[in-house]
Each structure stands twice: as C-alpha cells, then as structure tokens.
Amino acid sequence: MTRSVAAKTISRRTLLRGTGAAIALPFLEAMLPQRAWAAPGSKPPVRMAFLMVPNGMHMPDWTPGEEGALKQLPPTLEVLKDHRERFNILTGLTLDGARAHGDGGGDHARANAAFLTGAHPRKTDGADIHNGVSVDQVAAEAIGDQTRFASLELGLEGSSQSGNCDSGYSCAYSSNLSWRGPTTPVAKEVDPASVFDRLFGQRSQVTKKVTDPRAKYRASVLDSVIEEAQSLQRQLGADDKRKLDEYLYAVREVEQRLGSSETLSAPDIDLSNFPRPAGVPASMEEHAKLMLDMLALAFQTDSTRVITFAFTNEGSNRGYPEIEVPEGHHDLSHHGGSTEKQSKVAKINRHHIGMFKHLLDRLSSTKEGPDTLLENCMVLYGSGISDGDKHNHNDLPILLAGSAGGKLRTGRHLRYPNETPLCSLYVWMLQRMGVRTDQFGDANGTIAKLA
What we know:
The chain is an alpha/beta fold and 451 residues long.
C-alpha cells in the first residue's frame, strides 16, 4: 500500500479538544512511522463484540443447508447477502451451564447468565447471586489498560440487580450479560445520549421537558473542536484527510439523530409536562441503530476493544407492532408447534438481523489501514437458546463476523460435533486478543476450523 505523505507523525492518543468535549481520532496513516505497514506488530488492534438476542431462534430458517461455503443463505440471514463473505455460521455449539442440572425451571435466566460466562448460575432471587466471570471481562482485564475504556456494556433494555424474573432466578441473571466477578454483574447503558457523552465529552445534565429537547441546549461537540480539527487536517495526507472527514461526518450524523430522537409524539396526549427518558428513542430500530453506530465509533477511535450488546433482556415479552407482530416475543417462542407462531418468531428474528446488518454495513465501510474496521474485529451474534419452545441449549444459533485482523477465514458454515462447548470458541477469541489461556468456562481447549 502507498502511504499518504503527512507533515509529521501524530500520536495514536491524539484528541481533538474543545469546551467540554474530547474527540478521539480514528486510525490514521499519520499515526505510524513511514513504511510501518510492513513492520511486525504495526497492524491495527483486534476488537471483539458480543451481541445477544433473546428467546432463541426459529432454527429451520437460521441453519444453512450445507457445510462449507455460504452459497445459499437461509431465510433469516438472507438480508446479510452482501456480507456473505464476511462471516461464518457455527452450528453444534452448546451452552451446558444454561441447562437445569437439577434446578428446574429458569432456562431464560440461565441462558443469559451463562451466555458469556459458561457458568451455571446459582438459583436464587436474593442477594446471594453467584455466576462466573464473562469472556468480555477476561479480555478487558488483560488489555483494558490500552484504551480509554476497558469495556463498554450496551443494550436496549435496562439492567436489574434484584427481584425474581424467572422461576426463582434473580433479575440480575436475565438482564446482565457482562460479569466482572461471580457476584458482580455489569449494568448496561441503554441511553444513546449518555454513551455519546461518554465518548465525546460530558455535557450539562439539566432536566428538560419534551418541548425543550436536549438538542436546544447541548452545543455540538464538533463545533467546539472545529479549530483543532482544521489545524490537524493541514498536517495530513490526502487519504487521512478523507478518512477524518468521513469520521467527523459520522459523528455529526449521530449527534443530529440524537437530537431528533428526543421528541415524543402521541395523538391526543399532552406530553408537555413529562420529561423525556434521557435520549432513548421511541423506535426500537432507531434506538438500536444509534447504539450500534456508537459501538462502531468506539471501535473506530480505539476508545475500547471490548463491547457487549443485548437487544433485549432474556425472556423479553416485547411485541413488535412495527413489523405487524404485536404479540409478545416470549409468548410466541412457546409456539407448541404452531406454524403461525413460528412464522412470527422468524419475522422477529429477521427484524433483529436487519438491525445487525446496519452494524456490519458501518464496520465494513470504514477503512482502517489497508483493511476495513470489520476485518479487524470479531463480532459474535447469537443466543443461549436454540429452539425457544423446547428451551434447548445445544446446537445454538451463532454467527461470527469479521476477520480478527486476518486470523479468521470467513464465508463458511462450520459444523461441529454436538456438545462442543461454546466456550471453546471464546478461548479461540481470547487468544486472538492476546490473552494467554487454554481454558474458559467449561472448555479446556480451543475450537478448530476457524483459521
């Protein structure tokens, strides 16, 4: 690759600073010495993200018909056809920690608690919760000191730390993916405005009415750093100038969407005296896209290399009237063989995958060095339940996107022997992040076929 000529090398830690704002920069060629693209260890860092969807999957519409190259995508994944060469589907993986093991009901809580830990959570709805450490936090502990944030925990529904949410299991299990320790779940951030402020600078937290949205009193973070941005651009080569322009445009676009999303509307209801829930859009799809855009920005700026994201809490009974499925998702997942209910579950699955496509679009269109941001990521999408009616925890729906910095061969359907631990995949991912381990959860080795 021919590198653009810049006036001088700039630090990877350079920030654009303004009043109340500090904007991290994307990966620029000027951040490396001349000819550094060919130097050992000079490649952009590898990142990992884990995205969870609840209540299992309509597996007949998820699983590819043949092993090997993804020539024909199944119905649920058809929307990802443009990214077919950028991900793998892994079948045969099992989450044994989510099984009852004599504890009776509670598969949803166990599935969520075990999804990233591989542990079997203690059955309790009291203060004596006990789970395992999640894979994201193992990575964060090992490499988190290299970035502004060791990890980010995101989602569309809030976390709870107490209460009985599933057959005697604490709500802490069903609403927290990330666990720093066996008794310490890490709550999700669900407000996109708060995530934006964490990434780009703290702003006033004054309570505003619906008729006075945040956009009217929060100055643009880009406006506050524009002089520094213009000064920096004069030091950059043509490719870096283009890359910086694209990045600043993406930040501005997210900022503008945050402002427009902070207005509620409801016919025949006077909302003028009700505070807006801090920036959370009324539309789930817009909420998800804003959060996923900021996931991409966090990776692009190397603000963190470890992120978890939950579409909803496990066992969620949210309806989806926006896609003409008003019935509760959890209720539908207990379909009892009903063709109508299964078709509606499949429709919800496709809706979620459509939002996931938005993330793949962003990551794959963002250049980073000679590659794209997606090529330097490992993005796992899946669930700790396969068939929601049977509450199966084997043969899970797992998709792994990205190339892990060239260490992951994609575009395939990989079948593993039944009962292969999902955690063996996590061992492989941890190793790609530079964590020296052969064990995690219930796995005592790594998974094959990925390289």
